[in-house]
Amino acid sequence: MRWALIRVSLAVTAMVVLAFAVPLGLVVRELARDRALTNAERQAAAVAPALAITTDRAELARAVATAQAGGENRIALRIPATAHAAAVDLGRHRAPRAALDRASAHGQAATVRVPGGYALLRPTAVGSGTIAVVEVFVPEADVTRGVATAWLVLAAVGVGLIAGSAVVADRLGSRTIRPAVRLAGAARRLGEGDLAVRVPEAGPDELRAAAVAFNAMADQVVQLLANERELAADLSHRLRTPLTVLRLNTASLGDGPAADHTRAAVAQLEREVDQIIRAAREQRSGTAVPAGCDAAEVVRERMAFWSALAEDENRVVRTAGADRPVRVPVARADLAAALDAMLGNVFRHTPEGAAFAVDVHEFEDAVILLVSDAGPGVADPAAALRRGHGHGGPGSTGLGLDIVRRVAESTGGDLAISRSVLGGTEVRIRLARTLPSPLAPSTHRRT
């Protein structure tokens, strides 16, 4: 916008300069020409008294020589012949004879364009009853004297005005644009998680109103997030009562694999609820970096948890790439929640007996987790990936993939769904090993 204002100012100033400078330049040229011709008129008038007194050649020659133009051989005189006197022709004539004859016959002054300048023809009556013609030559240099200098002055003034307008427009533009730049920067920082950012309410009325609206929006976002954290904490706290009852009931199940599995599930659920409460109460900065975890260890732990259910449903399970440590910049609880969401979808949306596999692929800049199944597959992967729009039928909230997506995007990675080699669905989560800079523009999908 700043450069646009400067360009508009330059265009307007240039048009104004041209509108005034061109006519002024033409007027200066005409004034110089009129000045030269007026001076020639005075030179011709200086010879007229001598013509009124005498037509003697010698006397007229002396009169012509006394004039300034005559001394420079720029005055010529012609007196037509009469019945009682011979013709008189003095000086060098530059005007055509036809022009001299017309001036003598009609008695009208004229200015004739001749090589090197102009010839001023002034008819004057003499005592013999005829009309003499005084010719004064005006060189081109006299006609254009001072014109070039005046044009240079006008050009310099025009350039100065244009440069001055550019400087003024730049200063005014910077004062106008600065609040907009601050507003854009604050919006970017707010999007990156800096909830404390606010914009000074300064500048033009429109930008001041935008700053007021932005600050009000930021305050509302902070309040909404605080309310959301409190609601999550309250809801999670309410779950403790039924969880306590479940934990007490599991004590009466006795011993056995099913009882141990149930007690482990209840214990894990209690840990997850406690984690939610702590996370909701915690005031984290936007630049906090997760401690990270071993993805292979999480995969092994969660597969051990789900393998009992897989055995009950006669599912063939395969795990690959989880036999060595694989570090990822994701909290252990978050990665476990994402993996549980993907494995839970396998059990929920595929028939009993359908095989599934979990693969861990380690690269230099990323770690990829693949959960594949031999189920019917996903009819519309794009719809399933739309945030909050997934729908898996009864008992599904449609938010499982959102949990997985948030874990991937927290590292700068992504989530994808495609057809697996087992014939069903393949969910691919890519975890970048280098966290995105909090100052870099976000590249996450915002569907």
UniProtKB/TrEMBL annotation:
Which InterPro entries did the record assign? 2C_sensor_his_kinase (IPR050980), HAMP_dom (IPR003660), HATPase_C_sf (IPR036890), HATPase_dom (IPR003594), His_kinase_dom (IPR005467), HisK_dim/P_dom (IPR003661), HisK_dim/P_sf (IPR036097), Sig_transdc_His_kin-like_C (IPR004358)
Molecular-function annotations in GO? ATP binding; phosphoprotein phosphatase activity; phosphorelay sensor kinase activity
Localized where?
Cell membrane
What is this protein called in UniProt? Signal transduction histidine-protein kinase/phosphatase MprB
**Cofactor(s) this protein cannot do without:** Mn(2+); Mg(2+)
Give TM segment ranges.
148-169
Task: Give me the Gene Ontology terms describing cellular component.
Answer: plasma membrane
SMART domains documented for this protein: HAMP (SM00304), HATPase_c (SM00387), HisKA (SM00388)
Q: What membrane topology was assigned to this protein in its record?
A: Multi-pass membrane protein
List the EC numbers from the record.
2.7.13.3
**What are the protein's UniProt keywords?**
ATP-binding, Cell membrane, Hydrolase, Kinase, Magnesium, Manganese, Membrane, Nucleotide-binding, Phosphoprotein, Protein phosphatase, Stress response, Transferase, Transmembrane, Transmembrane helix, Two-component regulatory system, Virulence
Its recorded reaction(s) are:
ATP + protein L-histidine = ADP + protein N-phospho-L-histidine
**A Pfam family matched by this chain, by name?**
HATPase_c
What residue stretches are annotated with the HAMP domain? 174-226
Record PROSITE patterns: HAMP (PS50885), HIS_KIN (PS50109)
The residue ranges of the Histidine kinase domain are 234-435
